[in-house]
Amino acid sequence: MFLRYFSFIVALIAVPGFAQSSAKTAAPAATAAQTAAPTPTTPKEPNKLMLLAAKVNGLSSMGAQPWHIRANYQTFDADGKPKDKGVFEEWWAGPEKYKISYTSNGFNQVRYQIGKKMLMTGDDTAPSLADELLERSVVYPIPAAKAIKPLTFAAHDAKDGSLDLTCLREDEKSFLFTVFCFDKNSSAVRLEALPDGNMVFFNNIVSKDGKYLSKQIDVTFANLPVMSARVTTLEPLTKGDNALFEPPVGALPALSPPLFEPPGEVRIISIGRHPKTPPIAKAAHVHGTVVLAVMISPKGEVSEVRVISGPDMLRQAAVDSVKTYRFEPYKWNGQPTAVEELIRSNFY
């Protein structure tokens, strides 16, 4: 009855204006790129476009030159109300030498990557989903080439207000990966529609030497804001400042951040209560599937449930049921780690 669910945003890319919403808290529509610059010829073949996009979007595309970035960000609660305001900073000297800092009322932590080890000071917790989305969207909004090469993508045209977009998703014969939308005839990413229902908007695009970086990132879920960030500093990092990357005495091994797409299966140990079709839904002959995004704690407990789609009459029954699930703690690099799992509950 319960299956892992990996796809649902297929319909979005076929609907003009899908990135807009009439909700009061809707994210701003994409705006024109801030700076034009010569770029490589944009491939028409979808897979080649994805591979080029992986090379030219985000800080990870900038090459080996050390850099420092600072962004002010705001997170929101499940009702779209402001929750936490803070500052994100990263100093990068190489893939095995960087420092990340979160400073806010609700989460304060500094993480140090030294070789193969990551240490931390401050709050003894992993970054939240909103915090992790911020870091990922700034540094590497497009998956690495090795993750793209085995896949086959299909292209569709779409519009966001006056902006023409080219959207790519995995070929419909396979599971949906993530929908990526780009400026028409460009490889600058403007929208990422994640399988869990989060929508990441990339605006105020700056370009340098054919590389793109968004200075305004907004994440929404079900037309409600999740996180909004504005990059205020982006500069080269002065070489030779090794003291900046040295963790202080007493730094602890860092907890792994939540995984959005765990590479292995998350196994259900027990289901406390199977969902039952509510009487009102039975009387109305309502049946169907409710898709849920479930956050699983490092202990295997359900810590958060969000409804992605499904008949209104069946949603609460599905939520109440999945809250009773217990999972085998998921381990990443040998460490229990929080993961987000997409689950669908079928009502016949």
Write the layout of secondary structure elements.
Layout: E1 2-4, H1 46-56, E2 67-76, E3 82-94, E4 97-104, E5 108-114, E6 117-122, H2 129-139, H3 145-148, E7 153-160, E8 163-170, E9 179-183, E10 189-193, E11 198-208, E12 211-221, E13 224-236, E14 252-253, E15 268-271, H4 279-283, E16 288-296, E17 302-309, H5 312-322, E18 325-327, E19 331-332, E20 335-336, E21 339-347
Antiparallel strand pairs: 1-21, 2-3, 2-13, 3-4, 4-5, 5-6, 6-14, 7-8, 8-9, 9-10, 10-11, 11-12, 12-13, 15-18, 16-17, 16-21, 19-20
Could you characterize what this model shows?
The protein has 348 residues and is mainly β. It folds into two domains: 11-253, outer membrane lipoprotein receptor (LolB), chain A; 268-347, TolA/TonB C-terminal domain (2-Layer Sandwich), CATH 3.30.2420. The strands form four sheets. A 13-stranded antiparallel sheet has the order 7-8-9-10-11-12-13-2-3-4-5-6-14, covered by helices on one side. A four-stranded antiparallel sheet has the order 1-21-16-17, covered by helices on one side. Strands 15-18 form a two-stranded antiparallel ribbon. It contains five helices and 21 strands. The longest helix is centred in the first third of the chain and has 11 residues, at 46-56. Residues 1-27 and 32-38 have low confidence and may be disordered. Helices cover 12% and strands 42% of the residues. Strand 9 (179-183) and strand 10 (189-193) form a beta hairpin. The protein has helices spanning 46-56, 129-139, 145-148, 279-283, 312-322; strands at residues 2-4, 67-76, 82-94, 97-104, 108-114, 117-122, 153-160, 163-170, 179-183, 189-193, 198-208, 211-221, 224-236, 252-253, 268-271, 288-296, 302-309, 325-327, 331-332, 335-336, 339-347.
